[in-house]
Each structure stands twice: as structure tokens, then as C-alpha cells.
Amino acid sequence: MRNILLLSAGRRVELIQAFQSAFAEVSPLSKVIAADAQPLAPGLYHADLAIILPKVSANNFRDELVKAIREYEIDLVVPTIDPELPVLSHLREQLEDETGTRIMIAEPWVIDICNDKVLTQQHVTKNGLLAPKIYEDSSLIESSQFPLILKPRAGSSSIGVNIVNSLEELNYLLPATQSPMIQQLVFGDEFTADCFSDFEGKVISIVPRLRIATRGGEILKGRIVKDTDVIEAVRRLLESLPMPGHSTVQCFKTKEGVEFIEVNPRFGGGAPMSIAAGADSCKRLVELLNGGVLEYDESYEDGLTFLRFDQSIVLKDNELIQGKNLD
User: pLDDT by residue (tens digit) across 155-179?
Assistant: First the structure.
């Protein structure tokens, strides 16, 4: 039996169902336990078991997490949001030694690079790969260089991201942008690559997804495109930035080549697309927990188009999960 704890379950119903499907195939007695600070998180109502945990920023987060790991005999903890990553990365060895569980998390230096888009760009270019240019001094930007993109150095879900078309727009938005970075706006096909590596960082799969339409930074419509240029560039990046388990890499394929804009060392919202195409990260995690050895695999199905939509859960009072709203 292998139990998995999915943190900040939120709206990640498809991911929970993917883990359940993986368990049904290889470990039917195992359970997917979903945790969230919000008792009304939809993911809680689809998991095998649901628990309320404080936010990662809370003083009692570590102690409550340890209690949950022990009570539910958790074999793998899976973070899903950016604020969890640096905390769990620094706690990983301590938690694993104390509880015997495994945390799906990269080393602190990797998390530091991924959580800072300036450091990401610097790492990419240092390793001989391409990334859009960063403008460090806004006063030196010329009118011919617009449009540009203005965004926070840290952040997700496209929050605070703006395309600016003039120096006037830039000067207006700059003070309102937290830890701003100004970057060249590139044009071309935008991809998110779903990646999987084993616990030692060996690359197992890379699945490029063409981003056709997005909402709040998360893909709504996408297509699996087995683009060899994207795959090779992402592989080179992963070899310099080991991320155990599932990760996502965002890039544009431009006339210059494959240009990287973001790296997320966790499951992304669109991960169920690559899982459905046959690159099943959930099943692979279970296989690794069972002592399996994985090799590089590109046998997923190419050319699949995915159209995502919202669904609702209708609950009676007696079906609501009890717990203080910690959101």
C-alpha cells in the first residue's frame, strides 16, 4: 500500500483522479489524501480522504504536516503551489528522516532559481540556451524596443503581468509591480513541456504542449506536439536543473530557436493532458515508490487536442467537510 498526500488540493480534481487511476492499476489498496486550508476546496471532495492543513506560511504548518504523514502513513508528499516549494525544500531531509516519507521536491538551489524569473533567465543563458533579453535599467529603453513585457520576478498565474507598448505605460505600471522585471516580448508558438524525472533527477519524459488558449496563466485549450527542437532544448535545461518527479517548463519557439521564460518544479494545471496522452507521471511516481527503475520514454500519443472546462460539485450540509476556514 502506498499513500500519497497532495497539498493545496484546491481545484486539482483531474490530478487527484489521475493518481487514483494509477493506484487502481498498480496498488488498489493505496489512497490519495488531499489537504487544503480551505474546507470548500473542490479537490477535497474527490480524494479518498480529505484533511484540513494550515497554509505553508503558518507557524504550525510543519507540526501539522508531520502529524498527517504519521496518521495516514504517507509515502509521498506532493506540493502543488509555489509558496510551498522553498519551505518543503529546506525541510525535506528533516521530514524524510523523521517520518520515513518522501517529498517530491528539488534541492533549495534549484527552487531559488525557478522561483526568481531573473535567476531563471540567467541560468538558462549561462548554460548556452536561449531566453528573452532582460532590461535592467528602464531609463535606457528606447521607443523602438517596445512592446515589452513587465512582470514580477516571483509569482504565478500571470498575476501582475502586463504587456507595455510605450515608455509612458511602462513608467505608469512600474511602481505598481512588485520586484519588477522588464523583458523582451517574443513571438512564436508557446509551449509548456510536462517533464518527469526520477528521484535522482534522470530525465524520463518530456511532453511539449502547444498553448492554444489560457485563462489566468493556466491552459484552457492545448495540443500535444512532439516537437523535437523543444524536446532537445528542454532536455538540456533539465540536465542542468534536476527536478525530481513532475515539472513544467514554458518556452516559445521563435525564429531564433527555443526561448525559455519559466520553470516550475511541480505539477502544473495542465499536467493531466500529458498524463492522458500516455506520459503518466502519477503512475511513474507509484512505480518509483515501489522500487522500480525507469528509462527515457517518448511513447506518449502525439497530436491530441484538449479542451478544458469547469464543473460544479453540489453538496448538502451533511456532506460538507467540517473544519475551520484557514484560507
Answer: 776 788 899 999 999 989 999 888 8
pTM for this predicted structure: 0.93
Helix 61-71 vs helix 84-99: angle between axes, to the nearest 10 degrees? 50
| Same domain, residue pair 177 and 201 | no
The pLDDT > 70 percentage for the chain reads: 98
Domain that holds residue 153: 142-184
| From 99-108, 246-255, 317-326, the region with the lowest mean pLDDT | 317-326
Q: How far apart are CA 142 and CA 131, in angstroms?
A: 20
Q: What is the CATH number of the domain that holds 226?
A: 3.30.470.20
